[in-house]
Amino acid sequence: MTKTSRKTPGLPPRARPLLIILSGPSGAGKDSILSRLKESGSPLEYITTVTTRPRRPGERNAIHYHFVAADRFQGMVERGELLEWAKVYEHWYGVPRLPVKQALEAGRDVIVKVDTQGAATLKKIAPQAVFIFVMPPSMEELVTRLERRRTESLGGLALRVGTAAKEIQQLSLFDYMVVNQQDEIDRAVAQIEAIITAEKCRVAPREIAL
Q1: What is the CA radius of gyration of the chain?
Q2: Host H or E run for residue 86
Q3: 148: CATH
Q4: What per-residue confidence (pLDDT) applies to 90?
């Protein structure tokens, strides 16, 4: 009587760290969502964007953005210190490369906020990243939110609304869409956390190489 050999099932693949790209039009609520994610204790590495734009009332350096002069920003570009960069509404924005790389190598999930230009660039650099688009419930609501901020002139407001319409047309670039309804930010946050959970359960984990 011969013995039949049995193969022991292998262990499931270990979930790899995620690079999460959060984007969407100005006024969609990306900053509010990130703040609520931090408050909820989500174990994410939050990457602070570098920008040349002036600081708004209530903003703190190294918390909301790394605010730098234009010449310093250009130096960071020349030294390869930025993962991606783009000019948005007359000011430069960029994602610092080193903290993203260090966090991923340490096995931590990373979340980065960028505009759609930045998302398109990162799609080429890191196609296995998770791309999430934050959508306003309507253009009318978006205009209301932008007006409520009182940080734009009438011309600036019109520019942002027009840009938002073009950015929404780039939706096919993204993996997921989260609609940030008025006064329902916790729902949007829960959806993003559910996306992360689902990604951790993938049979074929995403692999990020920077």
Answers
A1: 20
A2: strand 82-88
A3: 3.40.50.300
A4: 87
Amino acid at 73: F
Q: Which amino acid is at 167?
A: E
pLDDT in tens, 39-83: 998 889 999 999 999 998 889 999 889 999 999 999 999 999 999
Domain range enclosing 120: 19-200
Compute the distance between CA of residue 85 and CA of residue 95 in angstroms, rounded to an integer. Answer: 7
Q: Reduced to 3 states, what is the DSSP secondary structure of residue 170?
A: coil
The residue type at 107:
G
pLDDT tens digit sequence for 145-186: 888 877 667 777 888 888 888 999 999 999 999 999 988 999
Q: Is residue 210 situated within a structural domain?
A: no
Mean pLDDT of the chain: 90
State the CB neighbour count (10 A cutoff) for residue 196: 19
Instruction: Answer yes or no: are the C-beta atoms of 143 and 164 closer than 8 Å.
Output: no
Domain count, the chain: 1
Which residue in the block uniquely carries the two structure tokens 């790209």? Answer: 21
Q: Tell me which amino acid residue 85 is.
A: W
Q: How far apart are the C-alpha atoms of 36 and 30, rounded to whole Å?
A: 10
